[in-house]
Amino acid sequence: MHLEFKVKSSSSFSGQEVDSEIANQLLALLLYLSAESYTRDLYLFINSPGGWVMSGMVIYDTMQYVPPDVRTIDLGLAASMGSLLLAGGAKNKRSAFPHAWRQWVFI
After folding, report:
1. CA-based Rg of the chain, rounded to a whole angstrom?
2. Which of 43, 46, 87, 88 is most buried when burial is the number of CB atoms within 10 A of its CB?
3. Rounded to an integer, what distance in angstroms lies between the CA atom of residue 38 and that of residue 77?
4. Hey, how many other C-beta atoms are within 10 angstroms of the C-beta on 81?
5. Catalytic site residues?
6. 38-56 pLDDT, tens digit each
7. For 69-103, how does the pLDDT look when each residue is reduced to its tens digit (9 = 90+)?
8. Which residues does the entry assign to the active site, renumbered to this chain (predicted)?
9. What CATH code is assigned to 10-103?
10. By the 8 A CB rule, do 13 and 1 touch?
11. What Å distances lie between residue 18 and 4, 54, 79, CA to CA?
12. Using CA atoms, how far apart are residues 15 and 46, in angstroms rounded to an integer?
């Protein structure tokens, strides 16, 4: 499964387990979209059961690095590494659908 996104709307979607392939795709997308516009918020829609720690940390660090705020939205499931990515959104720009489920992992 490949990452699908809309460049014009500055949004991306993570709907699978976080692994090195999805991390590289999201990394490239976040860097590209932030270069396109420093002021327009980026949106990361999450529906993920989790995944690899190192791959998730690459995405998380990139979210913190890019100049625009990254808004995170939990569509259905944000477990394990997915929950860390959800929490990595900009302050006051993290949200979840009413029936979305989150499984927090404390390290």
Report:
1. 12
2. 46
3. 29
4. 27
5. 80
6. 899 999 999 999 999 999 9
7. 999 999 999 999 999 999 999 999 999 999 999 88
8. 80
9. 3.90.226.10
10. no
11. 14, 9, 11
12. 6
**For residue 89, how many other CB atoms are within 10 A of its CB?**
22
End-to-end CA distance of the chain: 29
Residues contacting residue 54 through CB under 8 Å, at least 6 positions apart = 20
**pTM attached to this predicted model:** 0.85
Which tokens is 84 given?
A: 């860390």
Strands annotated E in 49-106: 70-79, 94-96, 101-103
Q: Could you tell me which of 88, 97, 68, 85 has the C-alpha nearest to residue 18? A: 85
